[in-house]
Amino acid sequence: MTNLTHLTIAQALDGLQKKDFTATELTQAHIGAMEQTRGLNAYITETPDLALKQAAESDKRRATGKAGTLDGIPLAIKDLFCTDGVQTTAASHILEGFIPRYESTVTANLLRDGAVFLGKTNLDEFAMGSSNMTSYFGNVINPWKRTGDDTDLVPGGSSGGSVAAVAARAAMGATGTDTGGSIRQPAGFTGIVGLKPTYGRCSRWGVVAFASSLDHPGPFARTVKDTALLLNSMAGYDPKDSTSANLPVPDYTKALSGDIRGLRIGIPKEYRVDGMPDEIEKLWQKGIEWLKAAGAVPVEISLPHTKYALPAYYIIAPAEASSNLARYDGVRYGLRVEGDNLTEMYEHTRAKGFGSEVKRRIMIGTYVLSAGYYDAFYVKAQKMRRLITEDFTKAFEVCDAILTPTAPSEAFAIGEKQDDPVTMYLNDVFTVASNLAGIPAISVPAGLGAQGLPLGLQIMGRMWDEETVLRVGAVLENAAGFSALPQGIAKAA
Length: 493
Known about the structure:
By secondary structure, the protein is α/β, with parallel strands linked by helices. The chain is 38% helix and 13% strand. It is built from 16 helices and eleven strands. The protein has helices at 9-17, 23-36, 48-63, 105-112, 160-167, 184-190, 224-234, 278-293, 309-324, 342-353, 356-369, 374-395, 421-425, 432-437, 466-480, 487-492; strands at 43-46, 74-78, 116-121, 173-178, 193-196, 216-221, 264-268, 297-301, 401-405, 441-448, 454-461. Helix 8 links the parallel strand 7 and strand 8.
């Protein structure tokens, strides 16, 4: 039998339909892969018994001709999505042991279509980070290694557990969230595909909030087609989410025509930043040539307020986080550390329950919202957000999609940048602007760097136009022909 963990979702659905194997066999293979890759620390909570039960139910549905669009596909769920009866921690001590009695809308949609849940994946605490080194449950290790070097590398963040699981073949796909790049950057670091849909396309209901106006749930997979299949299930209007868009959801797989002739691809001059490695510049140029060879037309564009995106983001996101995280007080749920009075109990609970990065962002957020600083920082950041959004609106008058690198570097060593928060924040320099504007964007693996590590290219599109983003992404994927495997996975294949 084919190594089931190396199939794409599309191939697995075809094999299940042809009865080449069962959902139970497919799930058992991935449970075995989870066990073999535990050293990566990709999962916080494994749910093999639940997965096998769901797989058995899937086999019954398929036998009666009632299979859903994702029936029997084993997925990993970022531990920011509330799952009924399964611990949801947001990788924080303050939520350790919290078991929701409800299902997030995105995971409910996946279950409706027959997906199998292998477990909850690790992340930066409350999704705050670009390396997956801030988790209370320990950092995730990237399955990739530098050529001739056994140093452990970060998988990117915050969705590091999800990407490590997919890249290591311990899940066929996964959910993630992207607040400033937390789907695309880790996808780029691990050689898989990560898609951030338009803000409002996938419901945030039941997703533990970091920054409510910036959080975008979205899918990970190993191919563009697989991400389209997952987005078909995840997307949709949700009346429980006031920011959910009441728009029809197209069949995204139909957008993968392979034809981009005549499409105008914007190349923003401001994304050539100081200090960017030469190999990333060369890969970007190669991506331009690939799309040009497929019939697209490269056009230079300007996004003049790009340089203000990171500063604006790191005022708005902490401000929203400081408000969202005020609910964790030891009174209603989660950790409680007693004190002599109510105020002491709040202080002790938060001091013990939150990690240093979360505390840093709460303090920054509270500061910029405080009297005397609100107008000086927060209001200015919101004005800048509007200007950044207008930059994209103007750019899309002359182009249909925008091509940039995904990240300014390849994966770095664990602990390498941890002592310098500003350097760590710069990992999101190419991704935060699209979150501020709410537009869709995808990262596609496009090659290996000099050290044998994956590098990604990013495509951004107009609001609600995930179809063009996916269409261009699939052409880019085909031209790049990326087929490399992490070293340990390649040996086991």
